[in-house]
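Weekly structure sync - notes
Attendees: PM, LS, DV (DV joined late)
Agenda: review two folding runs queued last week.

Item 1: First target. Sequence and structure tokens pasted below for the record.
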Amino acid sequence: MVSDLAAEVTAALARSILPSVIARGASVRVVAARDGVVTLEADGSPGAVLPILGRIEAQLRAAVPAVTAVRLAGADPEPPSPPETEDLSRAAQRILDAEANPAIAAHRGHVAVDSVSDGWVRIRLEGGCQGCSLAEVTIRQGLEPLLRARLPAMTGVADVTDHEAGTDPFFSPEKR
């Protein structure tokens, strides 16, 4: 029997959260709901849900007042301590230069590490990637899984590109 809390949370997920999670290359479902604590399980892109778990919790708490906390099944309660910021920055740029930038160059683009803070790698897309309508797909389905697989201490990837300033995007929004 599915609890009332689990049913309410499942409905809230389907109504307002799941489309965003699916757009990031993942899916999420309720595996437990007890005493206000909801446990979710994610499938798909490994880095798609963890960076937005706080937003998911906030939305669920607003939609279902009985929710007091949201947990992700299988997520470490305490992430491994990140290496020194400079080391993570250099390692991320080295991986991007070796494994991503050669392919991205075919679209007249380049990706660079802008900064690293608290395990978050902030990247900047340049050239044909700046303003490209498929930039988010490139990040969530290409760059983030690549970096996550090679840098387990990384918390997530954030795009700090000013896409509005792009002058020659490979796929302009009109091409969508």
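Item 2: Second target, run right after the first with the same settings.
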Amino acid sequence: MRRGLLILLAGCCLLLGACSQPAPDSIRFGIASRAANLDPRYATDATSARINRLLYRRLVDFDAHQRPVPDLADWQRFSPTHYRFTLGTTGRRFHDGSRLTAADVKATYDYILDPANGSPHRGSLSLINSIAAPDSEHIDFYLSRPDPLFPGYLVIGILPRALIEHKTDIQAHPVGSGALRFVRRPDAARLTLERLADHQLIDIIQVKDPTVRVLKLQRGELDLIQNDLPAELIGYLNQQPGIRVAQHPGSNFSYIGFNMQTEPTRDHTIREAIGLAIDREAIIHFLLDDAARKAGGLLPPEHWAGNPALQGLPHDPERARQLLAKRGYDAQHPLRLEYKTSSDPLRIRIATVIQDQLKRVGIDVAVKTYDWGTFYGDIKTGRFQMYSLSWVGIKTPDIFRYVFYSASVPPAGANRGRYNNPQADRLIETAERSSSLEAQAAGYRKLAALLARDLPYIPLWYEDNIAALRDDIVGYDLAEDGNYDGLQRVTRQ
């Protein structure tokens, strides 16, 4: 494999020979997937969420323990169903020069809550009954039911009311009040931002192929890259002069999802057989260079509402064969499935290994790879049998309603597999109505245990976050959720 990697690198070097060196005034950040949507009212993919954190300020953020803390505003709870938020002094100037007021906050959330607008975030905010802005500094949220976690739901980037009312295309012309402002997007693969504090330009560049990404880093055409790197390239980078590799334990949850409405994946026996056939330890060791840990559920065990008792399905290929035999499948009469994934090379390799592991128990998998936009569009519209994706940046357990509640089918949420279990719905509703965090945590642990039995997802792992940087790049810190907040501080020496 090492010799093959060197040959591939040499070949790519020839292809890159004509590439020009980057302009010295910009820091270039290489990533695998582009941002699908720079409008926070609609963005749901990981890259968009990470970039939108830089462009927009939000009412609330989270501390290191995943508890809500003020960002734009502090809050008071006047009653179990009435919260008042008071805007602070920072982050109050939009990039177009206008001042951020309570009217902008109200307009942003009113838009999301209007079912005619089709925001995918409406479901998670459905407990909001009404919003009032009595003056420019205060916003009152009135809820249909108590929820002690409510402040943690208000993490949507705030837009100017005038742009909302004029139906401005925010995706094409983002205007927020974040630490970085939008400069230009000359093509789908390149996005230029400017850091307000010092006018440093940041180019965020999509380079799909990890080998090309690494070579561009070596040549100085990129200054830093983050994640989506196979094990051999991480090892290669660790040996290169002028490059340093940073690693941080992660909380981003990788999983296999199923279509719960069509055969054969609606069959629990089939889903269990698939989970038992997958050797997660081998994939983590050989493809991820041990830079991940096995997952038992959507929330990591250290999360205040996580369930440490869940470990995920063991690797038991013999039991998988027995389950498949009950449905009439074996090596001579294999079950045939289609597995969709993105065109990122690491995701393709993982899918190929899973394909081989499933073949060994009598499942013939056709791996279908697509560019990110096509792949993500298929997943949101339910055009799949099984697929693999990751949830990133999860902070509060309202994610369970967004992902597993029966009414949260896109565009109302992210129940992409159309999972429908009245017991799960009741557990979600009961947990949300709980009057204390302790009671909520207990309810969500019960829900996680139910999901581990139902298997709408096969939990895979929580990947570490890995960045590779040129030696003259300093100040970039990795976060547990893999966000790009380090771009607010990164500099060139």
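Discussion on item 2: The longest strand covers residues 243-258.
Action: LS to circulate a short write-up before next sync.
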